């Protein structure tokens, strides 16, 4: 096995049991992109790697590269983000973001801007009272980082096509948006995450409507058939 020379930061996206005591975790790392790590003995309460193999956790890893998986040589937990689990809405929206990263990123291809965005967003999910707005902000910013930013020209009344964004006419793939909707979407796209609470108050039902549209846009443009959380949002 080849040991990587430097530590890398990684966020655990998901986990899968392997055998009786081990598990495979998919990790979005800052230096190597999305990778799979075999964590031997991780199911044991006494495992030294138990804490660094939990979903949502931000950890520092020194890795060894095997034929099919990476293995942990050394590790340290930095941010558990455990409080996300204490609120149901925060949990399902944060889980969706991990799934978006997992299904849209390429193995071994780093995207440091996306990594930093995910790290910061998860930190806010520990205490946010607006999980829908926070998820929307992440999704729009992430789409911009990977070259799929939708058109969001502000008009009095327009239609949002899941193929490209704002269009001037209605088609089978479009949804009606108001000027207020577009101002809100632009505000969270270009604003800072820490300023979300200062944006004009928007009713939750409308945020859910906008979020469902953006998820349809993500599925269409990133060629994702479904998310595990789909039934929870319908």
Shape from CA axes?
elongated
The top-level CATH class of the largest domain is Mainly Alpha
For the largest sheet, list the strands in their spatial order: 2-3-4-6-5
Which percent band covers the strand fraction?
A: 25-35%
CATH topology of the largest domain: de novo design (two linked rop proteins)
| The CATH architecture of the largest domain | Up-down Bundle
Domain count: 2
Note the gap between the termini.
46 Å
Going by helix content, strand content and strand pairing, the class is alpha+beta
Helix proportion of residues, in percent? 25-40%
| Count of DSSP H/I helices | 6
Poorly predicted regions: none
| Rg, Å, rounded | 19 Å
> How many beta-strand elements?
9
CATH superfamily of the largest domain: Recombination protein O, C-terminal domain
Largest sheet: number of strands, sense, barrel closure:
5 strands, mixed, barrel
In N-to-C order, the SSE pattern is: EEEEEEHHHEEEHHH
Mean pLDDT: 91
Question: Which features does this protein show?
Answer:
9 strands; alpha+beta; three-stranded antiparallel beta sheet; RecO; 6 helices; 234 residues; 25% strand; de novo design (two linked rop proteins); OB fold (Dihydrolipoamide Acetyltransferase, E2P); 2 domains; five-stranded mixed barrel
